[in-house]
């Protein structure tokens, strides 16, 4: 069944390239449509994918939809993964997939605090008696918080994606997605929380990575290159251009989204430098470096999540499709 996004792409591509057959691509995300997926929808909505010879179908994820196995099984062509931990696990377990780009230079995971709790710095959060952390995080980056920043398991309380306990305990801290939870906290609690990005405090993973099968990289490198480049341009357009058509597609694929919610999340993406910061500023959105992948792996070894040499880092990502300045020219045009 085709999504609204795909139908829109077909109408755009028919007008843009009536004489050329487009390569069909299925891209699966890891959650329901939202502003954090905006650049992908933008590349459909404004015809960027079609310009690069692609007819892209976005297959959204969700709480009852796990798209991860579909990539290795060959049911989708590209997958939006969370961060490098997923990719390390794939290599460790012999899953034949590889990261081909990283849309987010910063992982949006963050800790939030009440503004009047006396926490002025990230280090101050170690004093909190209570930290509401979801189960999956307790077995991933919480180990890094303990090894790098001195947090203690005694602080842990389960976060079940209900803001009530955090709002009721003004001395507590809570995990969340930096481009979503602050909006909900302000709406329900009536205050803007302090946001402490893990990425700004040493958590160096890439995030919202794009994964492909090794087979696709070997046999269809031109297809991979076009998808990576077009996605970078789509994100430039979404961040700095007219995003209205992309937002319309997001709302149609996820009716829970509103213009207000998308707008505030979009503003946080830019304010926090989630997408366009660091190496992306000079090398283009999607930029990755092997040194940073190795640095993050060393952090995770120190945190006890992996053993030294357990993961072959040259199998985690390929850098042949990124760091070429994709989207930089478009950004200059939009900034004029």
Description:
The chain has two domains: 4-105 and 205-335, 3-Layer(aba) Sandwich (D-Maltodextrin-Binding Protein, domain 2); 109-201, 3-Layer(aba) Sandwich (D-Maltodextrin-Binding Protein, domain 2), CATH 3.40.190.120. It has a five-stranded mixed sheet. The protein has a five-stranded mixed sheet with strand order 7-6-8-5-9. The chain contains 16 helices and ten strands. Helices cover 42% and strands 16% of the residues. It starts with a helix and ends with a helix. The relative contact order is 0.19. Mean pLDDT is 94; it is low at 7-19. By secondary structure, the protein is of the alpha/beta class.
What's the CATH architecture of the largest domain?
3-Layer(aba) Sandwich
CATH superfamily of the largest domain: Periplasmic binding protein-like II
Secondary-structure class: alpha/beta
Give the CATH level 1 class of the largest domain.
Alpha Beta
What is the share of helical residues? 40-55%
How many distinct beta strands? 10
Instruction: Provide the CATH topology of the largest domain.
Output: D-Maltodextrin-Binding Protein, domain 2
Helix and strand string, N-terminal first? HEHHEHEHEEEHHEHEHEEHHHHHHH
Instruction: Work out the strand percent.
Output: 15-25%
